[in-house]
Amino acid sequence: MMMMMMKVSELVLVLSCVLCVSADVFHEDLAIGGCSDTDGEEMYSLDGEEKWYADFINKRGVEPLPSFIDHISYQEGTYEQAEADQQICRQNLKVDQQMYKNTPLQFDPPSSPMIYTRDKVELGVKNTLICHVSGFYPAPVNVSWTKNEQKVTEGTSINVPFPLKDGSFTQISRLDFIPQLGDVYTCTVRHPALNQPLTRIWGETQHLSVSRCAVFCGVGLTVGLLGVAAGTFFLIKGNECS
């Protein structure tokens, strides 16, 4: 399947295939190669998990799967081949720009992003905030983070756009952080199809809900203990009178 995606003077080509490994089991093996006037992408995945992608900024290949998961290591020269593919892609891009210069542009905005933590929240313990953005076209989206209304860049990362079966894309941005009481974080998503950015908040409301629960539970426990003590007192007094 080949889809052509245009954004002003940009065009991205996406190639996908399904690999059948037995009569009973199917696996989706996906390869993406794309370019624009200023950027490029090459990525390989299996069953929705990224196996390898080219980091054209730091000029290296990246295997994003955790070290404890068995995964295929790509042979030496894979990144260099990706750079060569980019040259071919840009040559094709110039031709396609001429052919489709009057084609109406299509834009689909992302659905409401989701923000959540990777692990259960413990104050003072390192964790990761995840901002999940999906359903947009064309790729990519721009995701930015703030902490207490101050922009944050350290500890942030974002994966390459991942195509969905309906032709739209999904991306996940991450922020490494240490939860502290009162801290408020935001994830803001920008895309050409949006009239204004989408922002989701994590922090104060979660801490308040924990604090309020602790207060109410503490009050309930105190009242309960007072009730038990009062009942015991009157029971003893009643026995003495009899």
Core attributes:
242 residues, alpha+beta, Class II Histocompatibility Antigen, M Beta Chain, Chain B, domain 1, Immunoglobulin-like, 2 domains, six-stranded antiparallel sheet, five-stranded antiparallel sheet, 2 helices, 38% strand, disordered C terminus
Blueprint (SSEs and pairs):
Layout: E1 2-7, E2 10-20, E3 26-35, E4 40-46, E5 49-55, E6 60-62, H1 78-99, E7 114-117, E8 127-136, E9 142-147, E10 150-152, E11 156-158, E12 162-163, E13 169-177, E14 185-190, E15 198-202, H2 204-241
Antiparallel strand pairs: 1-2, 2-3, 3-4, 4-5, 5-6, 7-8, 8-13, 9-10, 9-14, 11-13, 12-13, 14-15
Transmembrane segments: 214-236
Pfam family, one: C1-set
Family: Belongs to the MHC class II family.
Structural write-up:
- This protein has 242 residues and is an alpha+beta fold.
- It has two domains: 2-99, Class II Histocompatibility Antigen, M Beta Chain, Chain B, domain 1 (Roll), CATH 3.10.320; 114-202, Immunoglobulins (Immunoglobulin-like).
- It has two helices and 15 strands.
- It has helices at 78-99, 204-241; strands at 2-7, 10-20, 26-35, 40-46, 49-55, 60-62, 114-117, 127-136, 142-147, 150-152, 156-158, 162-163, 169-177, 185-190, 198-202.
- Strands 1-2-3-4-5-6 form a six-stranded antiparallel sheet, with helices on one face. Strands 7, 8, 11, 12 and 13 form a five-stranded antiparallel sheet that branches. Strands 10-9-14-15 form a four-stranded antiparallel sheet.
- β12 and β13 form a beta hairpin.
